[in-house]
Amino acid sequence: MPRTKFLCDVLDESFYQSSYRDRRSDASSRELSKVLLRSTTLYIGNLSFYTREEQVWELFSRAGEVKRVIMGLHRFDKTPCGFCFVEYEDREGAEMAMRYINRCRLDDRVIRTDWDAGFIEGRQYGRGRSGGQVRDEFRKDYDVDRGGYGKIVEKMMRD
């Protein structure tokens, strides 16, 4: 008799492979794919600017033993800017987080998790022109948990 398939049994390739490509990386797509298959590091996005490291640690430790959490910071102000990296002690913990925590709510926001090749010093800083995340530069809606309007809209309103 065939076994019943559950939603968690049906994993597409995105569970194992990230669609994100770090443009600052020198690695080829093939090299990056190999690294991601062994990685124990996750990128966490869409965090509120007010989410604390302790909250991230508490949520992600439910999936496995967390080695460290690196909060994303505004490049100039050194204040939180809506992302972080979570490193696990082993691959199993990271896979559990990808499977069960991706798209969960934290601080009333739906967060997203993605495989990361591994944290390198300097990547904790926002890459946008204003010092935050690039995606927040172009946001047209008002999002109180991510600093209000996007920086480009904010500038247009001032001018």
From TrEMBL:
**Chief location of this protein?**
nucleus
One cellular-component annotation, GO: nuclear cap binding complex
Cellular location(s)? Nucleus
Q: Residues in domain RRM?
A: 40-118
* Keyword Transmembrane helix included in the entry's annotation: no
- Keywords, ordered alphabetically: mRNA processing, mRNA splicing, mRNA transport, Nucleus, RNA-binding, RNA-mediated gene silencing, Transport
Please give the CDD domains that the UniProt record associates with this protein: RRM_NCBP2
A Pfam match is RRM_1
Q: Which one of the record's GO molecular function terms can you name?
A: RNA cap binding
SUPFAM superfamilies, alphabetized: RNA-binding domain, RBD
Q: Name one GO biological process term.
A: mRNA cis splicing, via spliceosome
Query: Could you tell me the superkingdom of the organism this chain comes from?
Result: Eukaryota
Protein transport: is it a keyword of this entry? no
Q: Which family does it belong to?
A: Belongs to the RRM NCBP2 family.
Name the UniProt record assigns to this protein: Nuclear cap-binding protein subunit 2
Which species does this protein come from? Schistocephalus solidus
